[in-house]
Amino acid sequence: FHEINGKQWFSEVNEQWKGQAMSLEVKEMLFDKKSEYQHVQVFESNSPFGTVLLLDGVIQITDLDECAYQEMIAHLPLFSHENPERVLIIGGGDGGVLREVCRHACVKEV
User: Fold this and answer.
1) Cα–Cα distance measured from residue 29 to residue 70, given in angstroms and rounded to the nearest whole number
2) Model confidence over 33-48: pLDDT tens digits?
3) Residue 68 zone, left/alpha/beta (φ > 0; ψ -120 to 50; rest)
4) What global pTM score does this model have?
5) Where are the beta strands (DSSP E) in the chain?
């Protein structure tokens, strides 16, 4: 996090994407806590990305793009199964996969 022209910004710079960075203006920090395992931060950006979840300073998901991840991880396996009545979700802490799984009327137990 850094300040530019009196405004707070988050920038993600990662060796995976050489020569580029992702920066978002921070409207409000909503959550900032270090656990034994990771640093969890959630902030509201002043951009179309909306709310942003960071783990150890790396963007995990945003309001704008969460559907791409959640829908793919939930719907593809469910549509490939003949009759998915019971579903196990491991992880899924933000609840998005659960939301998408529950859209399938055939699912009776999660």
Assistant:
1) 24
2) 999 999 999 999 999 9
3) alpha
4) 0.75
5) 2-4, 7-13, 21-34, 39-45, 51-55, 58-62
